[in-house]
Structure of ABC transporter ATP-binding protein:
Amino acid sequence: MTTPSPLPGPGAVPGSPAIALHGLWRRFGQKIAVAGIDLVIPAGSFYGLVGPNGAGKTTTLSMATGLLRPDAGTALVHGVDIWAHPVEAKRILGVLPDGVRLFDRLSGAQLVTYAGLLQGLDRATVVSRTGDLLAALGLEEARDTLVVDYSAGMTKKIALACALVHAPRVLVLDEPFEAVDPVSAANIREILHQYVAGGGTVVVSSHVMDLVQRMCDHVAVISDGHVLAAGRVDDVRAGSSLEERFVELVGGRITGEGIAWLRTSSD
Ligand SMILES: Nc1ncnc2c1ncn2[C@@H]1O[C@H](COP(=O)(O)OP(=O)(O)OP(=O)(O)O)[C@@H](O)[C@H]1O
């Protein structure tokens, strides 16, 4: 008797949004980190996710990418439910998580190769793509250095290479520019713009409003686990700068005398 092979899971649904989140909830003890988020990220968009510290961005992205199970709600990647069909959804998704923990006793080249082989690519493709990615990210000289000896910015870049190696359709990046030098950041932006021009979708979380305004075509402002505004960047900022609009939506500017004992002048 032959064992029936498992039915293949669903593939990407033509015409579906890159990511669709419906009623996502997550609490940690008493703290409600994400309070029923609905968000549709159109295919082919460069989407920014902004919000104050502790707003729920990382929690939302973790639930959207299969890293953290929601208490309620669904997350679809090109129409595939990431929690019902994780293997199929993750095939079309590349993720750079926040505070990523890598197998850092591998060299940079070994780590990207490992990520590619895990995704089921053949060795020749992985070797050639690893070379391309290391060159594009300025890591060629460090290809044989152990990742544990990389700087914070180099670690970000090698993690990005791992997220890109299987040429995903959707790329989700939590704070991709943190600790990255300006030249490398410009290179990464260029790679991401080319990726979007080629039909991919990028979702980035960032605290740098100016960067999001220049780089992204869509944005969602999240605060206290809710979406306060979402849509095209020009519609959300409505004639102001994104930073002004952000402060207006989120509030929280602390004005006044500040901390008296930090003043060093005696007059
Ligand atoms: N594992 C956890 N255990 C307990 N509380 C958590 C956990 N992860 C997140 N939280 C809490 O959930 C809330 C949302 O956190 P989250 O990391 O999603 O915010 P964020 O918008 O990404 O913040 P930041 O911009 O500072 O990175 C915060 O109040 C945080 O303390």
About this structure: The longest strand covers residues 31-41.
